[in-house]
Design a protein that fits this description.
heterodimer, A: mainly alpha, Arp2/3 complex 21 kDa subunit ARPC3, 8 helices, globular, B: alpha+beta, Thrombin, subunit H, 6-stranded antiparallel barrel, 12 strands, cell shape (chain A)
């Protein structure tokens, strides 16, 4: 039950990202800020829930993002969201991770996420920006938005995961 | 070595397989595909339908706030529009006379149906925006609520009231995805270029818009001949010499013109006339060929 509510919450977040955020972001910043809010929630899953949950959530919502905004190709968001969700869970899976560490994970995670997307598009010769330009143009401004969002949802997320049954027994077995 | 230890043999194997599968999927779905598969259609249509419910109130509120803050400008705009209207009514008489003469001459010269159709006015279909992609800087797309069942096709130009904003890139059953012109890249093999000319110099001026400069916010118009009369301030419109666009759609204004890379042709910077933000309604330009096909289809399937 709890997981279903979580999926619904993330789906709502995905909808809001595509429909309300364009009006909230000031026009001048519209080519500087590229928020990926759903990814932050995936990272929270990786740290406070389990890496397999994060992997499934990442693959699912990445695929949704890829299909709904299908421009060049399907796959980059699915791949990077799933992979990073899993890796974050593998590296930081202690359940009492502090706020500072969580913020650091969101910051670094988002940075690596954007880098992977940048790299995939460069590999398929869809974009030809220099990494230095991309970094200054949109990556760093976007990272602060990611960090801000991670900070906003920190308390509600912790509460949510504390009330939830910690991990399924099957997942524990797999982990050991 | 620690990475191998951390990941383990089984995990590393799965990671490798995953990587290969994803590269295959990306390569397979890259660029132009005939038709999208039905699971994609289903997911896309349902999700964008829900997004439309979210988008509408947000757009209405934002529009209201915009209108209130621009109330003062409205008076001035009204004055300007009155003058413009007076000009239009005067020009309309002249236009009608020319049109009649043009048609008579075509009749006299025995134009074929196809040639006559070329000067047909195209149709505008109003489309509502469903959602905007803000999560990906290299894939700037918006979803609109017209799809295959409304006769949409890949490559149709999409305009706002100010000018061209993009082209339809994927068509689903009830919705379609528009790729914005800000996505254009001359090195991308799947990117389409637009043949353009200058307003009022249609027969003398020609160039191609192939890429968009993200850092400056300008289109680059290339392949301009040396003796081209194009100059700063000219309004750039699409030309029907290209593959996808009908003629006369406003794209932007010339900001500067300088010799190109090899010195044989000139390159101009074009400031886009459409603002790529605050989407309200958009228009899809349907040309005569597509319209005829649609009519044929309807006749065949009563």
């Amino acid at each position: 039950m709890n997981r279903n509510w979580m999926i619904l919450f993330m789906f709502l977040l995905f909808l809001i990202e595509g429909t309300w955020l364009p009006f909230v972001i000031p026009d001048v910043w519209s080519d500087r800020l590229f928020p990926q809010l759903v990814f932050i929630v995936v990272l929270y899953h990786a740290v406070y829930k389990h890496r397999h949950t994060a992997l499934m959530m990442g693959l699912g919502f990445g695929l949704l993002q890829d299909i709904v905004y299908y421009g060049h190709m399907i796959g980059p968001h699915t791949f990077s969201m799933g992979l990073l969700g899993y890796l974050a869970g593998l590296l930081f899976s202690t359940r009492n991770t502090s706020m500072m560490v969580m913020m650091m994970i969101s910051f670094m995670g988002s940075f690596i996420y954007q880098t992977i997307i940048f790299g995939i598009y460069a590999l398929f010769s869809v974009q030809h920006l220099e990494f230095k330009d991309a970094l200054l143009n949109y990556m760093i401004p976007s990272l602060f938005i990611q960090l801000l969002f991670a900070l906003i949802i920190y308390v509600p997320m912790r509460k949510w995961f504390e009330t939830a049954p910690v991990t399924d027994s099957t997942e524990d077995k797999e982990a050991s | 070595m620690t990475l191998f230890k951390l990941l383990g043999n089984k995990r590393l194997f799965i990671l490798m397989v995953g990587l290969i599968v994803f590269i295959a999927i990306m390569g397979f779905t890259l660029g132009a595909r005939g038709k999208v598969s039905w699971p994609e259609k289903f997911v896309h249509d349902t999700v964008t339908f829900v997004q439309k419910i979210f988008y509408k109130p947000a757009s209405a509120i934002s529009g209201f706030i915009d209108d209130v803050s621009k109330l003062k400008e409205t008076y001035e705009e009204n004055e300007r529009l009155k003058v413009a209207l007076a000009h239009y009514t005067r020009d309309k008489g002249v236009y009608n006379a020319y049109k009649a003469e043009n048609e008579r001459l075509k009749e006299d010269l025995k134009f074929t149906e196809r040639q006559k159709q070329k000067s047909d006015p195209y149709e505008y279909r109003i489309a509502q925006v469903n959602s905007i992609n803000v999560a990906d800087p290299f894939n700037q797309t918006i979803n609109i609520d017209l799809g295959e069942s409304d006769g949409m096709r890949v490559g149709m130009p999409v305009i706002s009231i100010d000018g061209v904003v993009g082209m339809i890139s994927r068509v689903y059953q009830f919705t379609s995805t528009v790729e914005l012109l800000t996505n254009m890249d001359d090195k991308d093999p799947n990117s389409r270029s637009i043949a353009v000319t200058a307003l009022g110099k249609e027969n003398k001026s020609f160039g191609m818009i192939e890429s968009y400069d993200q850092s400056e916010g300008m289109f680059l118009m290339t392949r301009i001949e040396e003796d081209d009369p194009l100059e700063k301030g000219d309004i750039i419109v699409s030309s029907d010499l290209g593959q996808y666009f009908p003629r006369g759609l406003v794209i932007g204004k010339v900001k500067s013109k300088e010799p190109g890379d090899f010195g044989l042709t000139y390159t101009a910077k074009i400031e886009p006339s459409a603002s790529f933000e605050n989407w309200r309604e958009l228009f899809v330009v349907v040309d005569h060929a597509a319209r005829d096909d649609e009519a044929d289809k309807k006749e065949k399937t009563p």
